[in-house]
Design brief:
This protein has one domain: MFS general substrate transporter like domains (Growth Hormone, Chain: A), CATH 1.20.1250. It is 70% helix and 0% strand. The chain is built from 19 helices and no strands. The radius of gyration is 21 Å and the shape is globular.
Length: 459
């Protein structure tokens, strides 16, 4: 059967039907924009008028790239702890050091990628970052020893702090990807597209995690290299609309844009530190505490990834009902409570249930957050704003990873969970402090009738 963009976009059709009521009266339900925080009329990514068919085709090609890369990244994320802990017989601290190198690389490269995406070419930048994952996976397959693992982590960003929507293995590509999606969509449908594309990536990640069951740890890296390389040709044929000259910035507008970048950078730092404490060590937690085999862990990781992917489809509803601040606070506070229970009560069945729902609670509101970032900065700053948020996140996670690796080596596996709870509480407080009195869906603040809207997937 011939694969067309129409068939692919129909994968999200049920999402559009479920949430159509939220978009039919969107403008009528908006509160007036807050001039101190909402600059979507003049500062958001520019509205362009490329043919919808061309935009759909480019989104389809981006989906192909993301699906293959997500599957490969999930395979690496599952196999790497077993390679380090079981095959090479190193401890959790060494695994944490490998993750830290990957995070540091992602931080530096992510900042460079954000600047390149804004100043040079978003398509070219995405292709450059797309090469890194297959190259790093091939290095590990060719020579799976400690020096090569550090080198591969440096190139490919082997960091298990990422969600289905960004960060993690190959996370340096995320600012360029998000900026490209912003160019191909409008404010009225951007959260929906972030959700659907991340959902599809999560499904691919679940499939990649499941595939680990059928390959040796060594061969997993060869398969991951092949899958991620297959997605590169799709990027070559993408057509990204040229951005018209941005609305000239006044001094106040420039300050407002930079102020919002700093706010999201600070919240990203707290978010990254909390991620670094727990997320990379959830699989090692089950290996150390419960001694689960690779094939078992691959199955449970696949289930958790799939649930996380499905949760992303709730992002438009969460944005509409709660606003991005309250949706982040609700989902992450609930996830924090469950992780504390998992740390205190060592019951395998209950721990696996918590492990399965944790990614879903952590990432459900992230598409709304990405829309918030892209609509609160000037169009010339979108790539850099996303990069600053990511750099702050992964830089803070580096120190947290070493902390947890050290504590796990001391068999103090419960302590990082309590630190996580304290940091996440501070992060939620900062969201309310930086973005107070946010009415639901404050991002789209005016009549968008002059902006040609790309229909929701499936329509």
């Amino acid at each position: 059967m011939k694969i067309t963009s129409a068939r692919i976009t129909r994968l999200g059709g049920f999402v559009a039907s479920t949430h159509s009521c939220y978009y039919s009266d969107m403008n009528a339900s908006r509160s007036p924009p807050d001039p101190d925080t909402d600059f979507s009329l003049t500062l958001g990514p520019p509205s362009t008028t490329p043919p919808p068919k061309m935009r759909r085709r480019s989104l389809l090609l981006l989906v192909i790239f993301r699906l293959l890369r997500s599957a490969a990244s999930a395979m690496i994320a599952v196999a790497l702890p077993y390679l380090v802990l079981r095959k090479l017989h190193y401890g959790s601290l060494m695994l944490g050091a490998i993750y830290m190198i990957g995070l540091a690389s992602t931080a530096v490269l992510g900042l460079a990628v954000g600047h390149l995406a804004d100043r040079w070419s978003r398509k070219g930048t995405l292709i450059l970052t797309g090469v890194m994952v297959p190259l790093s996976a091939l290095l590990v397959y060719a020579r799976p020893d400690l020096p090569i693992l550090f080198l591969a982590s440096l190139i490919g960003g082997f960091a298990a702090t990422g969600s289905l929507i960004g960060g993690g293995v190959g996370g340096a590509a995320q600012p360029a990807q998000t900026a490209v999606i912003a160019d191909l969509t409008t404010l009225s449908n951007r959260t929906l597209y972030y959700s659907v594309l991340a959902f599809l990536s999560g499904v691919a990640g679940a499939g990649g995690a499941w595939l680990v069951r059928y390959f040796s740890i060594h061969n997993v890296f060869l398969v991951a290299a092949g899958l991620s390389a297959l997605g590169l040709p799709a990027l070559v044929f993408m057509v990204i609309p040229a951005r018209p000259p941005a609305v000239p910035r006044t001094s106040d507008a420039h300050k407002a844009s930079r102020k919002n970048i700093r706010k999201f950078g600070i919240t990203g730092m707290f978010n990254g530190f909390s991620q670094g404490l727990i997320t990379p060590f959830l699989i090692p937690f089950f290996v150390i505490v419960y001694g689960l085999h690779k094939s078992q862990m691959a199955s449970y990781t696949s289930v958790a990834t799939m649930l996380g992917a499905v949760s992303l489809l709730a992002a438009p509803m969460l944005e509409k009902r709660l606003g991005f601040v309250r949706s982040i606070a609700f989902t992450r506070a609930l996830g924090t409570l469950l992780l504390l229970v998992m740390a205190i009560w060592h019951n395998l069945d209950f721990a696996l249930i918590i492990y399965a729902v944790t990614p879903a609670l952590r990432i459900a509101a992230l598409p709304a957050q990405q829309t918030a970032i892209t609509s609160r900065v000037h169009s010339d700053d979108v790539g850099r704003a996303l990069a600053v948020n990511q750099v702050a996140r992964v830089s803070a996670a580096s120190g947290a990873i070493l902390c947890t690796g050290y504590l796990f080596d001391l068999s103090a596996v419960e302590v990082p969970f309590f630190i996580y709870a304290a940091v996440m509480s501070a992060n939620i407080f900062l969201y309310f402090k930086f973005f107070p009195n946010q009415a639901p869906s404050p991002i789209i603040s005016a009549d968008t009738s002059e902006q040609p809207s790309l229909p929701p997937p499936g329509n």
